[in-house]
Amino acid sequence: MDLHYLTVILLGIVEGLTEFLPVSSTGHLILASELLGYDASTWAMFNVVIQLGAILAVVVLYWRTFWAVAMGLLRREPVSWRFLRNLVVAFIPAAVIGLALHDYIEILLGAPQVVAWALIAGGIAILLIERMVKQDLFHGIADIPMVRVIGIGFIQCLAMVPGVSRSGATIMGALTLGVERRTAAEFSFFLAIPTMLGATALELIKKGDRITSAAVGWDSIALGFVVSFLVAIVVIKAFVGLVSKHGFAPFAWYRIVAGASALVWLAMR
């Protein structure tokens, strides 16, 4: 198989594995670009768009939830409206701040050292939060109060620093604000849909005219999309059960080891 398509498949696997785990998919894709030696800027559009494959996995796995909410909205059921309200409100900070700081975020995407340090710092933060958080007041997305939803939305914005992890920031933020583990994880899954759709739309608006002339064309993006989707399906199913039983400490230690290893490797290049 052509080396280019092997890279496409590998990046699709990385995206599907890491998008919903608290380990930073963007950070792993940046480090992969350094490890494999390809031009990260050439693949920037690819890295953003294949995230939609992982997002589609959420829609497929939770279609009953989305269908129930849609029917509830038509019937004007309060719980469905609160579910939708909480997703929209939590998304707004990322939309506003992401637009305002887009150029600065682009600069950080080219800094693998930032990713490595963020992985380590995030791992330590997860270990501390796991030790400190004992309360689980809210057991459903629709039950989370507005003030705490706003807090989760702002905490998600920490993931604009590559290596922090959008899912990690959202889940840990929810835990510190009293949301139980499974609900925190599922809220992170659902919140990824508007967040990543928005990020992809912004990338297409800014760079879409260059995609056909880039080294990474639509065929590669389609392949990466499918691989990301299939891998994410497996990961999401396993993740919810894992954190319900064992918590997030295994991911914290992985982040610390991966970040430290990346720092050593970057220093030795």
Automatic annotation (TrEMBL):
EC numbers for this chain: 3.6.1.27
InterPro entries: UppP
Domain of life: Bacteria
Nucleus is among the record's keywords: no
Membrane topology: Multi-pass membrane protein
GO molecular function: undecaprenyl-diphosphatase activity
Signal peptide (from-to): none
Transmembrane region(s): 40-63, 83-101, 107-129, 141-164, 184-205, 217-240, 252-268
Record's catalysed reaction(s): di-trans,octa-cis-undecaprenyl diphosphate + H2O = di-trans,octa-cis-undecaprenyl phosphate + phosphate + H(+)
Subcellular location: Cell membrane
Keyword annotations: Antibiotic resistance, Cell membrane, Cell shape, Cell wall biogenesis/degradation, Hydrolase, Membrane, Peptidoglycan synthesis, Transmembrane, Transmembrane helix
Protein function: Catalyzes the dephosphorylation of undecaprenyl diphosphate (UPP). Confers resistance to bacitracin.
Similarity-based family: Belongs to the UppP family.
Other facts noted in the record for this chain: Bacitracin is thought to be involved in the inhibition of peptidoglycan synthesis by sequestering undecaprenyl diphosphate, thereby reducing the pool of lipid carrier available.
Protein name, per record: Undecaprenyl-diphosphatase
Lineage: Bacteria, Pseudomonadati, Pseudomonadota, Alphaproteobacteria, Sphingomonadales
Gene behind this protein: uppP
